[in-house]
Specification:
single chain, 27 helices
Length: 490
């Protein structure tokens, strides 16, 4: 069936709702070359041109009831879609396609409303067969790009985004935002690089490229684009926030604080700024300032474990044992399913001597860390040291053995395991594991001392004497170099 030019006008109008960059389409009834023969359709397009979609829908429902046609259902779907009634719009588009399977407009709009309903795989099934025909439909390409990203197909998303570039920098920028929003930073870099080159005066393009470079650990490459974005728009809070993040990553705490304070003056209640300021102030040694920021943030956003943990770090760095203990108890109770809360707070509780509560937290950390080997080793080791302090070496030994087996280069766990073996009377295993520790770190004083004790228990006094002497030599060397701070042992 031959389609009238009114459909081209409506398709272009659809893009305007997305991007606001294309000229508004002339309603079909005002275009002598694109007039529907059905007067109801003409009236409906006039109403939609005036933004009166509900009235247009009523006219079109009467029209399709009187004579079902693909045109009528296509217009009806569009009127419903513009009212955000996507399920009803889908029903009309499907009916239009049932009457005419080649109706491109209805197929494009169906794909779009499926994406709007988060039915991304269905949207791809509808749009992918006509992807080569979408060169005139940036809105459809935008939704196809989104659907690919949502379904884990970044290559498909990149292909759709590259087609969007043909519509100019504004549409390319919208595609790039999708990749940044979905945190597909490596995939976004080629598009963003071309966009920044094509639009050197765009603060947003330069900012987005800087963001992608920062998130792909290319901080050195980030700075020229970030500085350009800042020169173009010095009052951009997101740019200042990224500036502060980059400086934090480089350990430049004072400079980071200045940028973040500038951003905070623009967005006084932005929780990300308070959080980053807390980090900068801790790094700078201003623990009181960090605590003030973070305590305010906890009141503002009380359910973020990361905030509570940073506040715990601020109390710890300040040396406020009472506040550290209080905050650690609070974190353990408030976030029982959060690995880092249980692990970090459990370690702090261990330090202040609250071993029973520390044991509970660290056991939870072990259970929560099954997919994180590094944190699992850390949780097991610290749980073992708590059990040792509670006099339960028999329970600590299996945990320490697991840590040692998981990390062949581990020294501290070997020393702790050797000490537990000594206390339980397992002298031969103690010698074996302590020798491994001493071989890996000959300057480990505790390993040398414990080896001396283990050999003494076995009656091997000559070997014991060598290790006691090694311990004494290390003690003497540390005492000689320690006061001046020069030449201290590694």
């Amino acid at each position: 069936m031959k389609r009238r030019k009114a459909w081209i006008a409506l398709a272009a109008a659809g893009c305007c709702f997305l991007a606001g960059t294309l000229p508004r389409a002339v309603p079909a009834a005002q275009d002598p070359n694109a007039v529907f023969s059905n007067p109801r359709y003409q009236r409906a397009t006039e109403l939609m041109g005036a933004g009166k979609y509900a009235q247009a829908e009523a006219v079109l429902e009467a029209a399709v009831k009187a004579g079902p046609e693909p045109d009528g259902y296509g217009l009806l779907g569009y009127a419903r879609e513009m009212q955000n009634r996507f399920a009803a719009a889908e029903k009309a588009y499907r009916e239009s396609l049932r009457l005419d399977t080649d109706f491109l407009f209805a197929r494009i709009r169906l794909g779009i409303v499926l994406t709007k309903q988060k039915r991304n795989r269905e949207s791809i099934e509808v749009l992918r067969p006509i992807e080569t025909a979408l060169y005139r439909h940036p809105e459809a390409l935008f939704h196809l790009c989104l659907a690919y990203l949502e379904t884990g197909d970044p290559a498909g998303a990149v292909a759709a985004a590259e087609k969007m570039e043909a519509f100019g920098p504004e549409m390319a920028l919208r595609a790039a935002k999708l990749f940044v929003w979905k945190e597909k930073f490596p995939e976004s870099l080629p598009l963003l690089s071309r966009l920044a080159e094509a639009s050197p005066g765009s603060a947003e393009a330069n900012y987005l490229l800087a963001t992608a470079l920062f998130r792909t650990d290319q901080t050195e490459r980030m700075w020229p684009y970030l500085e350009k974005a800042h020169r173009i728009n010095p009052a951009s809070a997101p740019t200042l926030l990224l500036y502060g993040s980059g400086l934090l990553a480089e350990g430049k705490f004072s400079q980071a604080r200045e940028r973040l304070l500038q951003a905070q003056r623009l967005r006084p209640r932005d929780p990300r700024l308070r959080f980053l300021l807390g980090k900068a102030l801790i790094g700078e040694g201003d623990h009181a300032g960090a605590i003030a920021q973070l305590e305010a943030l906890v009141k503002q956003d009380p359910d973020k474990p990361e905030v509570h943990l940073l506040l715990l770090s601020a109390y710890r760095s300040k040396g406020d044992i009472q506040a550290t203990t209080r905050q650690a108890r609070h974190a353990v109770g408030k976030f029982p399913g959060h690995l880092q809360s249980q692990l970090e707070a459990g370690m702090d509780l261990q330090t202040v001597g609250e071993f029973e509560l520390a044991e509970q937290a660290l056991r939870r950390a072990v259970a929560l860390s099954k997919d994180n080997p590094a944190d699992r080793r850390k949780a097991r080791f610290n749980l073992a040291t708590v059990l040792v302090k509670l006099g339960r070496d028999d329970q600590a030994v299996p945990l320490l053995k697991e840590v040692v087996e998981a990390d062949p280069g581990e020294v501290e766990a070997r020393v702790e395991l050797g000490d537990s073996y000594l206390r339980t009377g397992a002298y031969e295993p103690a010698v074996q594991v302590l020798r491994e520790a001493a071989d890996r770190d000959p300057r480990n004083k505790r390993a040398q001392l414990l080896l001396g004790k283990a050999f003494t228990r076995l009656g091997r006094h000559e070997e014991a004497g060598r290790h006691f002497q090694a311990f004494q030599d290390l003690e003497t060397a540390d005492a000689a170099s320690g006061p001046s701070g020069a030449g201290s042992a590694p």
